[in-house]
Design a protein that fits this description.
mainly beta, two-stranded antiparallel sheet, globular, 21 strands
Length: 410
């Protein structure tokens, strides 16, 4: 299976290069290349503890192929390496990661007919995540691959633009089940009980169907956008935890399934050189999976479901010479619908867990030579929660990151 995935990545890369070469040879095809590469260095602070100075590399390459009037082919490579620590939301909680790298190959075809556009696409992503310094690339517990097929339809009308989308994607964690057997002493018993071999082997692998709808309109001088999306996510090898009338919980033959919905609104306005924007979002995850903590003989119903609220104002200055300065704030509030709070010793209370996250960001870019820009960014994040048991996941922390370096744009 792993060899098949590697072959697929090689195939995508070969196709990416072949399309570029073909565009040069074929007189009827126009090439419009685009690229953006940035190399930054910086530090990460978690609760005032500083990590060592590390680097970050981001790369975007896309030789857009104009095949003729109304037809375009867009191959894209997007890669990222982050050597700075950060807290990622993984497997239902905040996990501290040391290093990450992600590689995505995608191919999109765009057909334009008058005021309508149709965009089928395919993509493959491979992500490698290190939780410890001595962990080897490819051995990470949360390494994953994503294969995605999708389609967009866009209709531009005098009163606004409609966009409908459908995505099918499969996410696989090749190391999760193999490493779990050695992790019983270092992860909580709830997680181990849910994901042990009795509940299946590839318990984190999931299949997704996503439908999205967006409407954009232009009440001068503002731009308004409203969107709704719904995702059905099934875990084909993760059995449901059941609580019998007597005795210990067991795993049913039924499998876990989640439904994730998001409703968002965004308003933006340009008062050149200032661009203002504010977005609001409401999300809801409904899951049929429960949980059982065998160390405290506690059954927890509706463990993964939550309501998620968000607000994100931003202000950006964009100047004619390419210089940019931006400031943004993001507020997020999660209300878990079944997950119970615990004190520092792990004892359960009656209240449900809630978590509030504030993220402030400042970024700047200034031209230094032709297509080269000096870049700097600073992020400060505060997470607070009524959950005080953090042996496995982080709920309460303060984190900050600063980065500085060069960006090349073409």
């Amino acid at each position: 299976m792993e060899k098949t995935k590697q072959d697929f990545v090689k195939f995508c890369l070969a196709g990416f290069l072949a399309l570029t070469f073909f565009s040069v040879l074929h007189a009827g095809v126009k090439l419009a290349p685009a690229a953006d590469i940035s190399l930054l260095g910086g530090k990460y602070y978690l609760d005032s503890d500083a990590a060592s100075f590390q680097g970050r590399l981001d790369a975007f390459l896309s030789p857009v192929l104009e095949l003729g009037e109304g037809h375009a082919l867009i191959p894209v490579y997007a890669g990222n390496y982050s050597g700075t620590q950060d807290i990622q939301e993984l497997a239902g909680g905040g996990v501290l990661t040391r290093q990450r790298q992600t590689h995505t190959f995608s191919l999109k075809y765009v057909y334009t007919r008058e005021f309508d556009k149709y965009k089928p696409r395919i993509s493959y992503t491979k992500a490698l995540i290190k939780e410890t310094k001595d962990e080897k690339w490819g051995d990470g517990l949360f390494d994953y691959t994503t294969l995605s097929l999708g389609f967009d339809a866009e209709q531009e009308r005098p009163h606004g633009t409609f966009t409908e989308s459908y995505d099918f994607y499969r996410v696989k964690y090749p190391n999760y089940s193999t490493l779990l057997s050695a992790a019983q002493t270092v992860i909580d018993t709830t997680t181990f009980s849910e994901l042990s071999s009795n509940a299946g082997t590839d318990t984190m692998d999931n299949t997704n169907h996503r439908l999205g709808f967006v409407y954009t309109w232009f009440p001068d001088p503002a731009v308004m956008k409203a969107g709704y999306d719904i995702t059905y996510r099934s875990y084909g090898d993760q059995a449901l935890v059941a609580r019998p009338a007597t005795g210990q919980p067991y795993f049913k033959s039924d499998k876990r399934a989640d439904i994730l919905q998001n409703l968002s609104v965004r308003v933006s306005r340009a008062i050149k050189p200032v661009y203002l924007g504010v977005g609001a979002r409401v999300g809801w995850l409904s899951s049929n999976q429960d949980s059982y903590d065998s160390s405290r003989t506690k059954f927890i119903k509706d463990y993964y479901s939550y309501v998620d609220l968000g607000l994100s104002p931003s202000m950006n200055f964009i100047f004619k010479n390419g210089a940019q300065f931006g400031f943004g704030v993001e507020w997020r509030r999660l209300y878990y619908l079944g997950r119970l709070k615990q004190d520092a010793g792990g004892n359960y209370g009656e209240a449900k867990i809630n978590q509030t996250v504030w993220l402030s960001s400042i970024s700047a870019r200034y031209p230094v030579f032709r297509r080269f820009f000096a870049r700097a960014a600073y992020n400060y994040q505060v997470s607070s929660s009524n959950m005080n048991y953090e042996a496995n996941y982080r709920y309460n922390y303060r984190a900050s990151t600063y980065l500085a370096g060069l960006e090349w744009e073409f």
